[in-house]
Amino acid sequence: MPEVSVIIPARNAMATIGEQLEALARQETARSWEVIVADNDSTDGTASFVSERAAQLELPNVRVVPANGQLGAAHARNEGAAAATSPILLFCDADDRVDPGWLDALVRCTEASGIAGGLLDRREINDASRLPSGTEVRGDLPLSALGPRFAVSANLGVMGWLFETLGGFDERLVTCEDVDFSLRARRAGHPPAFCEDAVVHYRDRENLTETSRQSFAYGRAEPLLAKLHGEEWGPRRTTSDALQFWGGFVRSIPEVRKGPAQRVRFVRRFGRGMGRLYGSFEHRKRFL
Fold this sequence. Notes:
The protein is built from nine helices and eight strands. The chain has helices at residues 17-25, 46-57, 73-83, 102-113, 160-166, 177-187, 208-229, 239-251, 260-282, and strands at 4-10, 33-39, 62-66, 88-92, 97-98, 115-121, 155-159, 193-201. Helix 1 links the parallel strand 1 (4-10) and strand 2. It is globular.
C-alpha cells in the first residue's frame, strides 16, 4: 500500500498532462506513492495518453479511473479520492507543473495539520506580458482577496480521514469547491496550513475566451459560497460595492489598448461580474 496518493482531475487534458507527469517523475522522495488520474469524460484520448506516457517515463503506480456521469473537477477529485489506497491525499491539476520537492514538502505539512495548501507560482510557465505588473509568487487565487485564506485544489494536501469526515468536495460547485472545502475544514477545527515549500507552477488560461470563461465560473460560484457560508466566507456585498465594481469596470475600458496584461485584467473583471449576475439568479442569492 502506498503512503501517498496524488490525484489529478482531467478532462481533455492530453495537451498539458504530459508535462505534469514529467514533473511528477522528477519528485525527490523516498516515500511510496501512486498517481490517480480521474478522467472526467474526456474525448481526446487522455486516458490512453496517460498510460502510454507513464510507461515511457517509467513512472510507477499510475492509474486512470473513470469519473463519468457528471462534469466538474469536484466530481473528478471525489472519484479519484474514492479510488485512493493511501492515508494521505495530494491534489494537483493536469495543466500545471509541480516542483521536484513538492510531494515531500506538502506531505510534511499535511501530516502536521490535517490539511495544507502550497504556493502557486504564475511566473514560470506563463507569458510575462499577460501577467499584471508586480505579479509575485502567491499561495492563492484572486478570489481569496474577498475571503479567508484557503487551500487551493491545484496544490492541496489532506489526510484521508479528514477528507472522508468532511464528505469530500461539494459537487454543486462548478468551481471554487476548494474554498468551500477549506471553510468546512476550518469549521471542523482544522484550518488549512500554509506550506511555502510546496510549489506548483500555475498555468493561466491561454486566450481571452478561456480567461473569460474561467472568471465567469468564479463569479458564478460566489453567490452560492455566500449562501452556504455567509460572512464566514467574505463580507456581504452591498449595492454600493456592486456600483463600485461596475464603475471600476467602465473606467478600465480605455486601458485595454495599453497591452495584453490590461486586456486580461479587463476580461477577468467582466467575466467575474457577469458570473455573479448569473449565479445570483441561479442560486437565489444576491451577490453582485
